Amino acid sequence: AEYMGVKKKEMEFLKKERPTKAVVVITINRPDALNSLTPELIKAIGKTFNELRNDPDVRAVILTGAGQKAFSAGVDLTTAGNVFGKEQSREDDPRDAIENFPWPVICAVNGFAITGGFELALACDILIASSNAKFADTHAKFGIAPSWGLSQKLTRIAGPSRAKEMHFSARFVDAHEAERWGIVNRVVAPDQLLPHCIELATQISTMIPDMLKGYKRTVDNGYKKAFGDACDMEIDDAYKYYKTMTPELFAKMQNFIKSRGQKAKL
User: Fold this and answer.
1) For 16-42, what is the HEC assignment?
2) Beta strand pairing status for 105-109 and 6-7?
3) Where are the alpha helices (DSSP H) in the chain?
4) C-alpha distances in Å from residue 17, one per residue of 27, 127, 162, 230, 233
5) Which residues, in sequence order, are CB contacts of 31 under 8 Å at separation 6+?
6) What count of other Cβ atoms lies within 10 Å of the Cβ of residue 263?
7) pLDDT of residue 86
């Protein structure tokens, strides 16, 4: 049996839960294999995110791994021959599907995030780490070329020197060091990881939908440009947004500001 071209067995390795109407939790569910990624599981992640684009109620997604040992140890090397060296369609590319997902994606890094798993985590908008989390890049160790953005993203996040240390040595960086380097937003206790992420996602889901989606797009598009060009783009995006703002939405914004002002007086 298949679902959207993905075998049912592989879909069982990817759990989808809904703690609230607006929040979806996607769990890579191969804990006995450190949540490593088979070709079919890679395809399933991409297809799941692409399917959720059409869900009218979704406002935030959390991506995590089952258990407390690993978020994902990367591509399952026993199946690597079916992954590396083959062109992957944009439709099936999980990194592409996560990065271009219209709503914020939080990565709950519950353990090892190694190579491809590290790249999937960095595709997300916000990274929250368990104190169990550890990050490593083993591309050079195993002779695998990076193709999900790690060679470019880590340099921009942590700086060239720190990134090169990880790239060239395959050294593990623990959660607290990753926080100091700016790789993760914060570190929480393992049993608090998912509740913390659900609380954050729920807060995100209360934002004005069009502004939330547009804000993510503006930040991501601007990050690819030179600073001056990005600032010009921000102005253009703002004008486009205000042109589409309905009187009802403007009135809602005014009422919210008034209510905040009244609270401040109390």
Assistant:
1) EECCCCCEEEEEECCHHHCCCECHHHH
2) unpaired
3) 8-12, 39-52, 94-99, 116-123, 139-142, 150-158, 160-169, 175-180, 193-204, 209-223, 227-244, 247-265
4) 8, 19, 36, 36, 36
5) 65, 66, 67, 69, 70
6) 8
7) 59
Distance CA 69, CA 30 (A): 11
Q: How high is the pLDDT of residue 90?
A: 65
Q: How many residues does the chain have?
A: 266
Strand partners for 61: 24, 105
Contact status, residue 40 vs residue 10, Cβ threshold 8 Å: yes
Q: If we measure between CA atoms, which residue out of 113, 118, 106, 163 comes closest to residue 133?
A: 113
- Residue 115 Cα distances to 1, 36, 37, 146, angstroms: 31, 10, 11, 8
Q: Which stretches within 68-130 are classed as H helix? A: 94-99, 116-123
Can you tell me the distance from the alpha carbon of 50 to that of 256, in angstroms, rounded to the nearest whole number? Answer: 33
Could you tell me the mean pLDDT of each successive run of 10 residues in the chain, 266 residues long?
A: 47 91 98 95 95 96 96 86 58 90 98 97 98 97 92 95 97 98 98 98 95 95 95 94 84 78 52
C-alpha to C-alpha distance for 104 and 206, rounded to whole angstroms: 12
**Contact yes or no for 193/184 (Cβ under 8 A):** no
Q: What are phi and psi of 112, to 5 degrees?
A: -60, 135
How many angstroms separate the Cα of 227 from the Cα of each of 212, 221, 230? 22, 11, 5
> Where do we find the tokens 């993510």?
216
